[in-house]
Structure prediction request, 256 residues.
Amino acid sequence: MIFESHAHYEDARFDEDREALLKSFPQNGIDYVINVGSSLKTTKQSILLAEQYDFIYAAAGVHPEETAELNEENFAWLCEQMKKEKVVAVGEIGLDYHWDEPERSVQKQWFERQIALARQVSLPMIIHSRDAAKDTLDIMKACKAEEAGGVIHCFSYGVEMAREYLNMGFYIGIGGVVTFKNAKKLKEVAEYVPLDRILLETDCPYMAPEPHRGKRNSSLYLTYVAEKLADIKGMDVEKVYEKTRENGKRMYRIEK
Ligand SMILES: [Zn+2]
Prediction:
């Protein structure tokens, strides 16, 4: 059975077949899905999906690119969502200097506030960090992010950075990129990180693995990611499924 640790099924690209697709998951071996919020709106939608489907859990948070929408009033609303039964993480939160929007000071302010929130409610956090390696790590250390823990999703840095996060107790999220021919750095990271600290993720509808690169991604394609990981680590793919599922349940503290 497969633990999908990062998906966005509220996305409009699933409007046509969302229900049929989600309903097909249990028979395709997918028994847990974390649907991750990236704005106030998608946080609300993620919680609704989690309420609708037994095997879906929600993360509540605002992605760095969306932080311009935050203010004290709606941040208070976000804090309230953490009390909901199926909200299992704060995320996705972080820094994105690739697009550099909104300005960095705004991204940093709300990253810090959301880390503090995760610590306050004792939930793990889902970190999005793109082209912002140093600032992400500096802020996480200054804000004692390790007290809440979590995952660095869609990990895009090298082995040195992976070591820093492993030392802080964080998990490393690995998705479709690992199947790309030019993903040398991520393959090195996948080899380096112990299997008991890896989470399988799609980030769907984005990041479809080979041979579906560029198309709409879904959790059904996690098999390609798992097979590549098994190949890199020289182990049976069943072991990859089993361990990453245990990891997901442990990190998100899902008991059933
Ligand atoms: Zn995401």
